[in-house]
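#struct-help
A.M.: can someone run this one for me? Single chain, 197 residues.
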Amino acid sequence: MQQPQREVRAVHTASTVTVYQAHSPEIGLPAVREGRFPAAWKRGRMTWVKPSFLWMMYRCGWAAKAGQETVLAVEIGREGFEWALRHACLSSYQPGVHPDRATWQREVKRSPTRVQWDPERDLRLQPLPYRSLQLGLAGEAARRYADEWTVTIRDVTPLAHEIRGLVRDGDLDAARRLLPREQPYPAAEELLSNLRP
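D.P.: on it. Structure tokens below:
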């Protein structure tokens, strides 16, 4: 079966969705230890979360990029995740979705969340022909994410390093077996109706 061009795929349960972020150890390690983001985590700025583990690996270079050495799996409540999608707009103007650029600009100003669709990645971090959701949280959404929606925070940096080692050694089957089991998110059709170019 062909993969849909734009689909939310994530590890999810009946009550939570897992998203990924990479931070410096100064932010990431206290977040894991305390189970919540520390005061040093800037709640006033835009933060991007990714339901795709491999897209996160592409973004942080398998936890090797400066300031992104600690990869977090952040389990958030589904209600919060769906609130973010419901209050989102696309991060760039798309003819056919927006009647005109001015309408899109008004939406961006009032929306606390942004949706961006970027090419999904394979184990070698090469782009795939379908896209993965990136969700930008600002203002109210960022505060809710950090202080209300977060259920658990786990450090998955060792997993990133283990998978990268297997890929480097050419054992893609073993690497694939270690990947988080991301499945299509069930409520996404209704929530994404105005977020697909």
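A.M.: thanks! The chain has a mean pLDDT of 92.
D.P.: also worth noting: The first helix runs from residue 25 to 34.
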